[in-house]
Specification:
Blueprint: E1 3-5, E2 11-13, H1 16-21, E3 30-35, E4 54-59, E5 65-69, H2 82-94, E6 103-105, H3 108-114, E7 130-132, H4 133-143, H5 146-157, H6 160-173, H7 196-209, H8 211-214, E8 221-224, E9 227-230, E10 242-250, E11 254-263, E12 266-275, H9 278-295, E13 296-302, E14 309-314, E15 320-324, E16 329-334, E17 341-347, E18 351-352, E19 360-368, E20 371-380, H10 389-402, E21 407-409
Parallel strand pairs: 2-3, 14-18
Antiparallel strand pairs: 1-21, 3-17, 4-5, 4-12, 6-7, 8-9, 10-11, 11-12, 13-16, 14-15, 15-20, 17-19, 19-20
Helix pairs in contact: 2-5, 2-6, 2-7, 3-5, 4-5, 5-6
């Protein structure tokens, strides 16, 4: 049995058009390309700035980061924590553990903490009444109802602390690395913190995985207990193609928002925090979306199924295997302020035969300036069977003469 360990390296190829149109032999762990004619999106400070203390703007289809301002700073989420609450509820619905018709009872805790006596955002649920999950979802999304959140949390998990454990477990599963949830409502707690990076990741996930429930975020109003309330998201009334998602406010973090808009087939998702008023929040949100629509254009990097590069193979009938992505790879870049773009295919290698076709083996990372703006998994384009003893011996000699394989044991 062989045991292999490898170092990570990278090679830069100076002829980008050759790289884009023909297979390129990779003799190490990574490859980089330089496209001098495309734009540097992160020369963004000269193009746009916002009054928000933290901000993040992402184009949804390509995943391109268009604007970032302290997006990983931890803040109080306020009502934006309800995005995580809804993800847990949607997941429970998708896995069949509950249905929209499932009924939950309004406890005294839900009524006092989040209902009419609380003075906060509420759907005015009556004490000891029963409400369906479908109505509770509308109350939470449209009215930002704290009582609706607590009723769902208690109904699903038995208590709000237990539900918060579910929120954190799902957050880790979804790759939300820096956020911690303590309750379902977002009511202030010193331990409850999120980052805008995590909120945008969560928003994109909800839009993709739960389209039938995501539509509720665009609902203009909801009447419950004979009380009519409008959706609190100011973007829905600004004629910019908005259809989600939510707002929040705490004294410490100021006014915040996660918004999603679509125009001409292109969707942008943004998160803002640290604004001074609800008026300023609406104005800055509109500004960043309008800027994004006007300031960027899409360029194709690789067509669907196009060879991105070739990974080295140890002990196979072939010494390399072509790499490709499952989908077209494109990127949004600024119309002005053109700069350098670099892409690295990074994999742990050489790959050891046998290798299956369509096996995920690495990541294509695209950088603009010093900023990582997109990551895409890459897969083997074909299978590579194990070679004979002669081929494996030649590979061992290659290790001795070039250091290709850092450690080889039989």
């Amino acid at each position: 049995m062989m045991r292999l360990s490898f170092a990570m390296t990278a090679i830069e190829i100076q002829n980008p058009r050759h790289f884009l149109t023909a297979p390129v032999r990779l003799v190490a762990i990574g490859v980089a390309i330089t496209l001098a004619s495309v734009a540097g999106a992160m020369a963004q400070e000269a193009l746009f700035d916002t009054k928000a203390e933290q901000a993040l703007m992402v184009e949804d289809q390509t995943g391109t980061i268009l604007y970032a301002k302290s997006p990983d700073t931890l803040i109080e989420p306020a009502a934006l924590a309800k995005l995580m609450t809804m993800e847990v509820v949607f997941h429970e619905l998708k896995t069949g553990k509950i249905t929209p018709a499932t009924q939950y009872t309004v406890s005294e805790n839900a009524w006092r903490t989040g209902g009419a006596p609380s003075g906060g955002s509420t759907m005015f649920a009556k004490l000891k009444s029963s409400i369906s999950v479908g109505d509770l979802i509308q109350g939470v999304i449209v009215q930002s109802a704290n009582d609706g959140c607590i009723i769902l949390a208690e109904g699903i998990a038995g208590s709000e602390p237990k539900f918060a454990e579910m929120m954190n477990a799902r957050a880790r599963e979804l790759g939300l690395k820096n956020s911690t949830f303590v309750n379902s409502t977002g009511l202030p707690d010193p331990k409850q913190r999120v980052s805008l990076t995590d909120l945008v990741t969560l928003a994109r996930h909800i839009k993709k995985e739960y389209p039938e429930y995501y539509r509720t975020y665009a609902q203009d109003n909801f009447t419950w207990n004979n009380i009519f309330q409008r959706n609190r998201n100011p973007l829905l009334r600004l004629d910019i193609g908005a259809d989600g998602m939510g707002t929040g406010y705490t004294e410490q973090s100021g006014y915040g928002l996660v918004g999603s808009t679509e125009r001409n087939g292109r969707r942008y998702i943004a998160a803002l925090s640290g604004l001074a008023s609800d008026k300023e929040r609406a104005e800055e949100a509109k500004r960043i979306f309008e800027w994004a629509y006007q300031a960027f254009e899409e360029i194709g990097i690789f067509a669907e199924g196009e060879t991105i590069g070739e990974a080295s193979v140890f002990g196979g009938v072939k010494s390399g295997v072509a790499l490709m992505a499952h989908e077209k790879i494109s990127l949004l870049v600024p119309v002005a302020n053109r700069d350098r773009l670099k892409a690295h295919v990074v994999y742990q290698g050489p790959l050891v035969a046998p290798i299956k076709a369509d096996q995920e083996v690495g990541i294509l990372r695209i950088w603009i300036g010093d900023d990582l703006v997109q990551e895409t998994p890459v897969y083997t384009a074909e299978a590579v069977e194990s070679g004979d003893l002669k081929k494996r011996s030649l590979d061992a000699v290659l290790e001795l003469t070039t250091g290709w394989v850092r450690q080889l044991k039989f």
